[in-house]
Design a protein that fits this description.
This protein has helices at 2-23, 25-30, 76-79, 82-90, 108-113, 122-140, 159-176, 192-206, 219-222, 229-238, 252-263, 277-281, 283-291; strands at 66-71, 94-101, 147-152, 181-185, 212-217, 242-247, 268-269, 274-275, 295-299. It is α/β, with parallel strands linked by helices and 300 residues long. The protein has one domain: LmbE-like (Rossmann fold), CATH 3.40.50.10320. Strands 3-2-1-4-5-9-6 form a 7-stranded mixed sheet, with helices on both faces. A two-stranded antiparallel ribbon has the order 7-8. Helix 8 links the parallel strand 4 and strand 5 (212-217). Helix 6 (122-140) runs antiparallel to helix 11. The radius of gyration is 21 Å and the shape is globular. The N and C termini lie far apart (74 Å). Bound molecules: zinc ion. Residues 72-73, 76, 191, 194 line the site of zinc ion.
Length: 300
């Protein structure tokens, strides 16, 4: 009898825990403080319960210069940051790569879905992009401990909320690691999700919360956008960034690393979850990178 009461009590408690986990995941997460070791430094809006700052999986080596790359979408880490990232790793810097979105919403999904059955949902497409990002960063020498993946820029999302979250994320790492360099894209980028990361870093620098930063012009704004009247019209309204200097890979081995990382975005093997999303989304940008991987640092 006593045993039955204990079993029944445990069952009720277990069911209650599962119910809380489903209805209020934030409460369960807060039971595990390691998950929240970096508190958000800016206030979050009410519907931000699923959003929290991810702590680094490995503390940086104090002997090494630490660098953060904030990557708006899977493929930007190769197309825009591949050259400086490979250079930073060669200089023995401790490089952390932070992907800000899964990128569920892309015109590439319709193109891919014409070639496969069953079709990919936006979430499955986003997961395929994340897989390409993981493979590309692995090929550049960035391991899982130096990689974090957020889930911003969702469909129907609110641009202001996205900006708030980007700034919250960058500010949290800047507070915890003030000695780090913060690298991302130009505020003049025609793609708003690229530009807002640049803007967040610029504002944090202006308010002295970031000491060291660097901005890069995407291959799109420097080259491919100019070939499309619609894109170049938008870019003209925004204006172009001022070029500070160009950087290049000179050693064949480094060029091979970059080329191999770019090829992670070309793998087509639907049975195993590879859909060549990067290549199907922006073939022109990958072509330009292969032709000439010169990368532009801009003044901001
Ligand atoms: Zn992008």
């Amino acid at each position: 009898m006593k045993k039955n009461i204990i079993v029944a009590t445990c069952s009720v408690l277990f069911m209650a825990l599962i119910a809380v986990g489903i209805l209020k995941p934030g409460i369960i997460r807060s039971l595990f403080p390691a998950e929240r070791s970096i508190p958000p430094t800016l206030s979050l809006s009410k519907n931000d319960e699923s959003f929290y700052i991810q702590p680094l999986k490995k503390k940086p080596d104090p002997q090494k210069q630490m660098v953060f790359y904030f990557v708006p979408h899977a493929d930007d880490e190769v197309l825009t940051f591949g050259v400086p990232m490979i250079q930073d790793l060669k200089q023995n810097k401790e490089v952390y790569v932070i992907l800000m979105s899964h990128g569920d919403i892309t015109g590439a999904r319709a193109r891919i879905n014409k070639r496969i059955n069953p079709e990919l949902t936006p979430r499955q497409l986003g997961q395929a992009r994340v897989n390409e990002f993981i493979e590309a960063t692995n090929r550049m020498g960035i391991d899982d401990k130096h990689r974090l993946i957020y889930d911003l820029f969702l469909e129907g999302g609110d641009r202001e909320q996205d900006y708030g979250r980007v700034k919250t994320i960058v500010a949290a790492y800047a507070k915890e690691y003030p000695q780090a360099e913060f690298k991302s894209m130009s505020i003049f980028d025609v793609h708003p999700e690229h530009a807002i990361i640049g803007k967040a870093i610029q504002e944090l620098k202006n308010s002295n919360r970031i000491k060291s930063s660097q901005s890069f012009a995407s291959i799109n704004i420097m080259r491919t956008c100019k070939k499309s009247p619609r894109c170049s019209g938008k870019q003209q309204k925004i204006g172009m960034p001022t070029i500070e200097r160009q950087i290049q890979l000179t050693e064949p081995r480094d060029k091979h690393i970059l080329s191999s990382a770019a090829d992670a975005y070309r793998v087509w093997n639907p049975k195993k979850g590879w859909y060549s999303v990067g290549e199907i989304s922006v073939p022109g940008q990958f072509r330009e990178l292969k032709k000439d991987p010169t990368t532009i640092i801009v003044k901001e």
